[in-house]
Protein: Type IV pilus assembly protein PilW
Amino acid sequence: MISITIGLLLLAGITTLIAQQSSARAEIDKSGRQIENGRYALTLLQDDIQHAGFYGQYSGAITTLAALPDPCATDLATIDASLAMPLQGYDAPTTVPAPLSACLLDANHIAGTDILVVRRLEATDTLTTIAGAVAGQVYVQTTPDGKVTGSGSDTTVFTLTQKDATTAAELRKYVEHIYFLSPCNVYATGATSCTSAADGGSPVPTLKRLEITSTAGTTAFTTTPLVDGIQNMQFDYGIDSALLGPTDTGTPNFPFVTAPGITDWPNVMAVQVNLLARNVDPSVGYIDTKTYNLGVAGTVGPFSDAYKRHAYTAAVRAVNPSGRRE
Structure:
C-alpha cells in the first residue's frame, strides 16, 4: 500500500508537470503567432506605402483635385485623375463614409479603425505587353513626360512610344489597395459579410484589403484577407507643407496628423503606422489590464478580457512623392 501511494503521488506530480508544460507551450505558440502576424502586417503596409505614387517612367505634373477621388470607382477617367493622390485615408470612421461605402460594407469594417487607400503601378521588371493585356484590367502606359490610362478591353489607346518613335512605351498594371480591418476572417457559409457565425462562431479581427482587378473581363474590386488577429489600426500622416521649389526637401515639416485636409493629401510624405495585434485564442486565467499607445490617436484599453496583445509602430517614408521633391 505504501508503494502504491508513493506511485500515485509520483504519477500525479508527473501529470501536473506535463499539463503545465503543455499549457506553457500553447502560450508560447500563441505569442509566436501574434508576433509573426503583427510584424507581417506592418511589413505589408510598409512595402505598399513606400511604393505609393510609383508611376513608371512618368515624372510630369498631375492636376490636383478639388475633392477626394472615389476609391471605389472603376471608370478610367476617375482612376486617371486619382493618380494625383497616391495616398488617401479615412480617420477612424464609425460608419464607412460615401462613396467608399459602395465597395466596403459597414458590417465588414471595425468601427473606429482607420482605412488607407494606396495607389501606384505594378513594380516589376516583367512589363505587360499590349498584346498580353487582360480584358477589364486597368493599365497605365508611361513615358518620362506622358501617360495614358486604359484597359485591356481596348488597347488602341496605348499609343505612346519610346524615343525611337516605334517601340511601344512601357505598360504597367494599375494597383489600388484599400486597407481596412474587418471583424472576421472567413464569412459564414452563404454570408457576404461578417456575422457572429463567421470563423466557426468566434470571429477574429483581420487585416484585409480591397484590390482592383479584372473579374470575368470586368473591372471590379475583390476582398483579400491578409493577416488575422489585427484588432486596431491607426495612421498618422507627415505633411510637407512647403511650396515646391529649390529649397523643398520632401521632408514633413510639422507634426504628424490623423486627418489631412483635401489640399494636404498630395503633400503627405510619410506615414506612421500603428497596429494593435491580439492573440487569436484566449489565454485561460489571463486578464488584459494594459493600455496601448496608437500614436496621435491616443491609447486604447484596458480590454479586461483573456486575449494577450501587443502594439506595433513604424514610420514609413512615401519614397516616390518625397523623392520627386528632393
Residues 3-324 form one domain.
